[in-house]
């Protein structure tokens, strides 16, 4: 069979790519060796960036409805005394920044999401055996349950097939880094009666532990195992129950154990995120300890990045070179999060009592100083993606190019208040702040943006006069009802034309007088096969 994109692995990252390709109209096949969603204890935290991606899949409110919003992460000492709190306020990207969730529930909705698309085909109980690349595409050999094999011919392949990725091995990529020595018992209970509405990380030199409030009565516990404790002993229900009672002074009846498993933590990043027409995403490309709840979120960022680039090449005639920017953009940020999670693990698990005291003293001191308390509380230590090279024009920390763009509410011309991305649509947007961008683009520039399929938006200051409420017929008029663009422009003066990519990253900005120069430069960053610039 033929397909445009073959995705190997139907976990959250793979299925998110499938949903996005569904939205972008790309013929996609997604395979997984398992008959169903894996029921191990897995991810528990979804951030605002991922929710924005699910929104782009057309599933934002639906998946968010199952989550506990704005869940704080609190650090305690082993006596259950609070040391520090992370609870960021504000929703710069249009969604709460920290949310707890049940992974099987999210995956069920994401899988249901792909059923909307006739051009996306999910095939279970199919295992990738081999890949052969040629200039025409990739030939994948896939084994089915009955022992037969089938061939899938795809233009491109994405390996989202987890930490033990077959795709990674077949393209000769290597996970660099290390596996940490400690083992952790991870337990989910159901019908929990323990009231602690937050994620708690308990710092201890003898046995660091974790308790996380999950939706619908579930609760996650994690305990570091000692060297003399075997996996088999520690997953026994009586042993698990004793650990929970001992560490949380729990005296009431013990609710049901849903699942338990022993994990080792890995801090690893693939030496490359692709080879030719094959790409790696999610755990196939990077593995991190769970401490900051970013493992799955990193994979969702990969999904958003690779999906629009594949669609741009397949559907919009972008040059294939665009696909090289995927690894350029994603690898550094994935590594930054692996490093952060690894460092946090060291904070939670001091080796000595003295180390425990130092952490306790240090975190309490940080709580007393407003600037450092705010640094933790507002999660300012989280490395935000910033693409210094890739499909971006002249990125600089000063002009915000290369960073995820804000998502304020806006008001449509017919008075509906919606999130910006709903107004922007699925693809590129060229936004004019208080101007119609089309008025400042010459025919060549207009031709470029139209060939790319970009939509023009005119973002008027809120409650603007009638003289500003006009635009060309294919420019969408919007009101900056929440003042998001006003505030953004205050920090980014003299830039009233913005280009936002489908993954909601700012690709370019300029002053209106430079709109044609910007367009010509951008057409070199993202060349289109159908578009050759007629230079002036
Ligand atoms: O960010 C959160 O709310 C929890 C992150 C976390 C911490 C410790 C273990 C774990 O599995 C997730």
Automatic annotation (TrEMBL):
<dbReference type="InterPro" id="IPR002938">
    <property type="entry name" value="FAD-bd"/>
</dbReference>
<keyword id="KW-0560">Oxidoreductase</keyword>
<dbReference type="InterPro" id="IPR050631">
    <property type="entry name" value="PheA/TfdB_FAD_monoxygenase"/>
</dbReference>
<dbReference type="InterPro" id="IPR036188">
    <property type="entry name" value="FAD/NAD-bd_sf"/>
</dbReference>
<dbReference type="GO" id="GO:0008688">
    <property type="term" value="F:3-(3-hydroxyphenyl)propionate hydroxylase activity"/>
</dbReference>
<feature type="domain" description="FAD-binding">
    <location>
        <begin position="3"/>
        <end position="340"/>
    </location>
</feature>
<protein>
    <submittedName>
        <fullName>Bifunctional 3-(3-hydroxy-phenyl)propionate/3-hydroxycinnamic acid hydroxylase</fullName>
        <ecNumber>1.14.13.127</ecNumber>
    </submittedName>
</protein>
<dbReference type="Pfam" id="PF01494">
    <property type="entry name" value="FAD_binding_3"/>
</dbReference>
